[in-house]
Amino acid sequence: MLSLYAFRASRTEEYRTGEQHSEITRALSRDIPDGAPLPRFVDVTEAAGLSGFRTFAGERTSQLPEDMGPGAAWGDFDGDGDDDLFLVSAGGPLTAAENDLAPSELFENLGDGTFARVEEFPETRIVGMSAAWGDHDGDGDLDLVVTGYDTLRLFRNDSGHFERDDEFASPQGYWAGASWSDFDRDGDLDLYICGYVQYVPDVSGKDRISSQYGRQIPYTLNPSSYKPERNLLFVNRGDGTFDEQAESRGVSNPDGRSLVALWHDLDDDGWPDLYVANDISDNALYLNREGRFEDASHAAWVADYRGAMGLAAGDWNRDGDDDLFVTHWVAQENALYDSRFVDDAGLESAEGAPLRFVDFADQRGLGQIALRSVGWGAEFFDFDADGWLDLAVANGSTFEEQTVPRHLTPELPFLFWNDHGRFFHDLAPLSDPFAVPRVARGLALADYDNDGDIDVLLIDGDGGGVRLLRNETEQGNWVQLSLRARVENGYGPAEGARVVAVAGDVAHRRAVSGVSYLSQSSRRLHVGLGPDRLESVEVHWPGGSVQHVTGLTGRSIWEIREGEPEPRLLAAPRPPLTREQVSEFWNVQRAAVHAMKAEEDLVTAIDLFHRALEIDPTHEDSIYYLGNCLAERGELDAALRRFEALMRLNRSSHRAFKRWGTLRAMSATSSVALKEAEEALARAVEINPEATGARMVLAETKIVQGDLEAARQSLRWIHGTNPSAGDALFLLAYLDWRQGDSRGARDLLRRAAETGEDWRPEGAAAEGDVKRTMHRETTLFAGIYASWDRSTDPGPAFAALEESVRGYRRF
Question: Are both 214 and 359 inside the same structural domain?
Answer without folding.
Answer: yes
